[in-house]
Amino acid sequence: xxxxxxxxxxxxxxxxxxxxxxxxxxxxxxxxxxxxxxxxxxxxxxxxxxxxxxxxxxxxxxxxxxxxxxxxxxxxxxxxxxxxxxxxxxxxxxxxxxxxxxxxxxxxxxxxxxxxxxxxxxxxxxxxxxxxxxxxxxxxxxxxxxxxxxxxxxxxxxxxxxxxxxxxxxxxxxxxxxxxxxxxxxxxxxxxxxxxxxxxxxxxxxxxxxxxxxxxxxxxxxxxxxxxxxxxxxxxxxxxxxxxxxxxxxxxxxxxxxxxxxxxxxxxxxxxxxxxxxxxxxxxxxxxxxxxxxxxxxxx
Amino acid sequence: xxxxxxxxxxxxxxxxxxxxxxxxxxxxxxxxxxxxxxxxxxxxxxxxxxxxxxxxxxxxxxxxxxxxxxxxxxxxxxxxxxxxxxxxxxxxxxxxxxxxxxxxxxxxxxxxxxxxxxxxxxxxxxxxxxxxxxxxxxxxxxxxxxxxxxxxxxxxxxxxxxxxxxxxxxxxxxxxxxxxxxxxxxxxxxxxxxxxxxxxxxxxxxxxxxxxxxxxxxxxxxxxxxxxxxxxxxxxxxxxxxxxxxxxxxxxxxxxxxxxxxxxxxxxxxxxxxxxxxxxxxxxxxxxxxxxxxxxxxxxxxxxxxxxxxxxxxxxxxxxxxxxxxxxxxxxxxxxxxxxxxxxxxxxxxxxxxxxxxxxxxxxxxxxxxxxxxxxxxxxxxxxxxxxxxx
Amino acid sequence: xxxxxxxxxxxxxxxxxxxxxxxxxxxxxxxxxxxxxxxxxxxxxxxxxxxxxxxxxxxxxxxxxxxxxxxxxxxxxxxxxxxxxxxxxxxxxxxxxxxxxxxxxxxxxxxxxxxxxxxxxxxxxxxxxxxxxxxxxxxxxxxxxxxxxxxxxxxxxxxxxxxxxxxxxxxxxxxxxxxxxxxxxxxxxxxxxxxxxxxxxxxxxxxxxxxxxxxxxxxxxxxxxxxxxxxxxxxxxxxxxxxxxxxxxxxxxxxxxxxxxxxxxxxxxxxxxxxxxxxxxxxxxxxxxxxxxxxxxxx
Lengths: 300, 391, 299
Known about the structure:
CATH architecture of the largest domain in chain B: 3-Layer(aba) Sandwich
Largest sheet of chain A: none
Order of helices and strands of chain A: HHHHHHHHHHHHH
Strand content of chain A: under 5%
Shape of chain A: globular
CATH superfamily of the largest domain in chain B: Response regulator
Number of strands of chain A: 0
Structural class of chain B: alpha/beta
Largest sheet of chain B: 7 strands, mixed
CATH topology of the largest domain in chain B: Rossmann fold
Number of helices of chain B: 12
Oligomer: heterotrimer
């Protein structure tokens, strides 16, 4: 019992689990864009940084309450998502991917050159507002919200676009409009995640939001299982905790990570839980139990 | 076939889980009871982009710990280093710092880079653990709180002294200033050099900026070739510095450059070869083979004995001094409790280390003397001048 | 006076830009050919280029060979490497989702970077020694260094050779047919797997040569050098129109000039963004790139 309490109050574990929650929100945002709508985004970290800087600057200069700043960070990221989405979501597949990648790099370079963000020296002096409770309340709200959206008319329209854009269009769905809405939703969550990150680290540096970070979040979503909320959760949990566990192999860590990415794709190209949502996951477990029970009765 | 695949995935996952569990288990093994040793954390990159700084700093720290322990330890206790490698990644550094704190370190000898030091400081200050950075030179570090220190030669102290030397001894009148944008170290140094150059009546005839990891400077050098100047003040790191000078020689420009300790590294002359001969670099520590004496001489000899006769650069020396400074503060306070000995640390005055004397001023910023100005000669840095700092 | 100075700078920067651009072009060709045939962004291509550079370095420092030999050897090392990467990481995924091979490519890229870092013992850059006497030729307002001349000549030769292979040989014809329509080509009796392997091999050979040339030009190589150069070269390929071989050459040189001119014009702090900014602009107005064919929407 004492051991359990120790683990629960250990600041290191709390730190690691909080960070995981923050990145989970970002991954869920990307899940909407890539998993549900089927659009490539290789610049997700840029939206994190927009949300992070926006909310941090508001906290420092305007002293507005944190909840407000967090929402503002999310909305600012979504605004830029729409601004980028309008022209570029007409592009498809890889072209869209590479445009978002380019946008990500441009945002990073702009932050390096801006005075108010502290440039390359980074932005310090952000008060700590984030804690594990807030993060997991936001995580719960995000999952609940996404679950509701995915099973709504809007969510089904997004999924229809992913499955076949032309067929969706002939069913009366305006793909561009829906894609932009989906993109805005995804980038909103990225912005929220960035705001939480800023008020957790208390120090921001543009170097933390390069394309390596974007691909890391993409990995969470893809390896976990595209189009699946449990998949995004599993992917984020495994991959964001892996570096902590693999610290003992130090320099071989990235070697294993790279090889694992290749192997995962070859043996499980849809990720660990590709296309599985909560309802199906539940059903699957239930069915399995049933079939086991059936087998048992048969044997009797 | 299909079954086989699932089996493979399962095995792979199991292997990962096992390594995770195995590691988790070993982490929990309790070290010697808290009373017997004083733990000092090392925060730095042993892997990743800045691995050299981390590895060398750790070597110096280990030497200091060995010296202290063989002399009986501090307040009757032995010192012990707890390593934290963050792979030169700042969001991972936050996790590692937190981990060191939960392992009950009394102090952390911090990262040599300013950015990571700042994010670690945000965690150490509220946790009431002393963070002594052996290398951070940028602004806004010790302002974070009274548990945050550094033992480096600050550019704000050194750059004006070097500028006066360039002006008075070398008679430079016109300079070209080259900054690595996107690198806080370089931008900070440039902002210190500018007023210093103006103060000593030197004119900046051209300003160019380059990017870190960039390898092509032909455009910037072509722009410089239109101007007349006595030398280049270069505020970036050695890789870019060496390549920049090579490009200058290629385009027929023969001026030398002067810069901060970011240029200090054997890579400068390995990469720069003939192009960097005569270029000058200042630092808080240098191996002055002729004039080194006392503690410094002893340190150099010990380092060489342990490292195949290689000469130490400033990172092991700073790491060594950091541990020694902490040990002396703990002795003075007769306690290894950071809330107690941090006040003694702040009172450090004219403390003699292997890198020179250190005084913490009223803002807890270090004032270090002297500044070593070194020149590239052949395949080595040779001390050109030792410039004392007058407070 | 001002005008004269400006012009002199302009010509010099143009030469620098074309030199830089032709190295981008060499790498962009690999991206464009692979994309043309199997619609994959081969993110590991930048790492092939990096390994080419390291092979060249080992050969000139340890075995003291002539730089031409080093270039050839680097090409010979990169070819089997790329074929192996394709076999292991891409071929099993050819009928998979669009994202799977991309992630796999990223995995290969991370793997190779780390592997080279480990073997080399750290991420610090290594000096690439001066392999040839670098003299400067003055031609009117412009200064050429020997290395620049070598890069321009080598790059042109390789590109002409490539163009010849694709246009006039049997395998070149097969490549064009496969890129036109993968399914139909295989129905016509073309061994598409062989064609894909060949495409990877040719791209890798060019990247390997590019790696050694860049090492000679900038005198410094490191394990992560393939990342930004790779991304920028991919931008160049898209700029020129992905799938188009002349497009990749044009895009590479265009990007090189734009970068050098951008720096000269004072946008040096935005250098890393120039390539991507251009890319977004071109994609918005002509989504298929400068020389690309219109995208067909298949129902």
